[in-house]
Design goal:
Strand order of the largest sheet: 3-2-1-4-5-7-6
Distance between the termini: 24 Å
Largest sheet: 7 strands, mixed
Number of domains: 1
CATH superfamily: Vaccinia Virus protein VP39
Structural class: alpha/beta
CATH architecture: 3-Layer(aba) Sandwich
CATH class: Alpha Beta
Number of strands: 7
CATH topology: Rossmann fold
Strand content: 15-25%
Length: about 230
């Protein structure tokens, strides 16, 4: 997966967007600074999704190693660490990692966070009890996204919790209109995926033979539409 041309091309576009084109917009979106109506719906949707993904993890994560794949400015990583997890939080964008380090609370209780710049698919990150990837795989073709899950599964003991962009008429229309951000800092194309087709691909993936598709939940808040998916070891 990590070596495919489509994956490498998408990785480059995502790095350019989050690290250069729209870093200021994302820094503001992920803060408590005032934002416009459209971005307010995205902020609210992201918060709801983050809370949903957290609810699918144990309340007590002490002794667990967790990968936050595509961690952005680190909000999820902080909450997981505050539950006691040892978090490796990786993102392709150095400027977002720098901001995550700036926002890091002075105390995380029993947990800790290791922020890293890099590719979430890098085997050098090690093995984990849980993998969480919120709104990172949404930029990749379904085949690459499933291949990423398959690769991560080889280094994950318990469960992977990820999000994808569900294929809905509303989401398709919004992306065609380019409404998420102004033209100068619009995100790389999000690739909507049909839920049934994605689930079938996961179930048919050889590297996921010992895994099952578990809980699913859709969050729809104005201009934010995303679907959570749990894949757990059988």
């Amino acid at each position: 997966m990590a070596g495919t041309l489509s994956y490498r091309e998408r990785l480059g576009a995502i790095e350019t967007y989050f690290d250069r084109t729209a870093v200021d917009a994302w820094a503001r979106l992920t803060s408590d600074a005032p934002v416009g109506r459209i971005r307010a719906t995205v902020r609210a949707g992201r918060e709801e999704m983050r809370n949903r993904l957290l609810s699918w993890l144990p309340d007590d994560l002490r002794g667990c190693r967790l990968l936050d794949a595509g961690c952005g400015t680190g909000a999820f990583a902080v909450e997981a660490a505050q539950r006691g997890a040892e978090v490796v939080a990786v993102d392709i964008a150095p400027n977002l990692i720098a901001l995550a380090n700036e926002r890091l609370p002075k105390s995380l209780g029993a947990g800790r966070i290791d922020f890293r710049v890099g590719d979430m698919a890098d085997p050098a990150l090690g093995s984990f009890d849980y993998v969480v990837s919120m709104d990172a795989l949404i930029h990749y073709a379904p085949g690459d996204a499933v291949a990423a899950l398959s690769a991560l599964a080889q280094r994950t003991r318990c469960a992977m919790v990820v999000t994808f962009a569900p294929r809905t008429p509303l989401l398709a229309a919004m992306h065609m209109a380019g409404q998420f951000f102004p033209r100068s800092d619009r995100s790389p194309a999000i690739i909507p995926v049909a839920q049934d087709a994605l689930v079938a691909s996961i179930r048919g993936e050889k590297g996921l033979a010992d895994w099952r598709v578990g809980r699913m939940h859709r969050v729809s808040r104005g201009f934010y539409i995303s679907q959570a998916l749990e894949v757990a070891r059988t």
